[in-house]
Automatic annotation (TrEMBL):
It holds the Pfam family PDT. It comes from Motiliproteus coralliicola. Keywords: Amino-acid biosynthesis, Aromatic amino acid biosynthesis, Lyase, Phenylalanine biosynthesis. Its EC number is 4.2.1.51. The record marks 173 as: Essential for prephenate dehydratase activity. InterPro entries: ACT-like_dom_sf, Chor_mutase/pphenate_deHydtase, Preph_deHydtase, Preph_deHydtase_CS. It is an enzyme of class 4 (lyase). CDD domains: ACT_CM-PDT, PBP2_Ct-PDT_like. This is prephenate dehydratase. GO terms for cellular component: cytoplasm.
Length: 285
């Protein structure tokens, strides 16, 4: 029963929901109120997978995920890059020229602020994009609008008054696909892989430099490095690292030996095939 369920944070019509439908069209995508709830449902066996946003090309990283990943025992088994196409949604029959206010999540409003200003539309901050669409559908004010996905328009019976509201082309969100069961693909020469890890540094001079040195000397490409405070104190700094390699590659094994010597609490979050977005946009070779 639960093998067919994938969970996400937000309301139906959110970009996380859209990503679930694109990647796993045959699974039952179910909404959760929080990231914690979504992860816990997978941990408890109440869902098979979770679709969790990690970062956005315009708004940056989703800070809460970095705080939650050390607390969860879930594994990353895949990634998905979702282009964000913000749409200005209105009630059925409403006109763009009559819109005076638009509600949405603050990040979505920030990503559309130039377009909103040019249309003389006042932004109104709300909890999330899909929630703004739902709230709009429950009123009868044709001067109100919402900024959300085209899926939200479909679900809540709204008109798309204007697509591509985002100010910057290429606005994209990277999602992690989380599972209770580790699923490491076999290494196949010619395929591209990402390995995600967490670690802490030893209290020695140039600790981070020494941790990463093995990747450089063994020609392993680092594609992401993030620091975050994980232990409740300013001195307890942890790192999230993504590398373009598979643990079965000899160069990666040598790099990991050096990391193991200098780092503490190393955890392999998962190895998975790199999404085609990376090669299509030359993010990795």
């Amino acid at each position: 029963m639960y093998e067919d369920i994938i969970v996400y944070q937000g309301r139906p019509g959110a970009y996380s929901h859209l990503s679930c439908r694109k990647v796993f069209p045959d699974m039952d995508a179910q909404a959760c109120e929080s990231f914690v709830e979504a992860m816990e449902r997978v941990e408890q066996g109440l869902a098979k997978l979770a679709m969790i946003p990690l970062e956005n090309s315009t708004a940056g990283r989703v800070e809460e995920i970095y705080r939650q990943m050390p607390k969860t025992k879930l594994h990353i088994i895949g990634e998905h890059f979702e282009p964000v196409n913000h749409c200005l949604l209105g009630l059925k029959g409403s006109k763009l020229a009559n819109i005076r206010k638009a509600g949405s999540h603050p990040q979505a409003l920030a990503q559309c602020q130039d377009h909103l200003k040019s249309l003389d539309i006042e932004p109104v901050a709300m909890f999330d994009t899909a929630g703004a669409a739902l709230a709009l559908s429950q009123q009868q004010d044709a001067s109100q609008a919402a900024i959300a996905s085209s899926l939200a328009a479909e679900l809540y019976g709204l008109d798309v008054l204007k697509a591509n509201m985002q100010d910057v082309d290429g606005n994209t969100t990277r999602f992690l696909i989380l599972s209770k069961t580790r699923k490491m693909p076999d290494f196949v020469p010619g395929k591209r892989y990402i390995t995600s890890m967490m670690f802490k540094t030893r209290n020695i001079p140039a600790a981070l430099y020494k941790c990463l040195g093995g990747f450089s000397t063994n020609n392993v490409n680092l594609v992401k490095l993030e620091s975050y405070m994980a232990g409740g104190t300013l001195k307890d700094c942890s790192f999230h690292l993504d590398v373009a390699a598979h643990p079965d590659q000899h160069s990666m094994q040598l790099a990991l030996q050096e990391l193991d010597f200098f780092a503490l609490d190393i955890r392999n979050l998962g190895t998975y095939e790199a999404h085609t977005f990376r090669t299509d946009h030359e993010l990795i070779e």
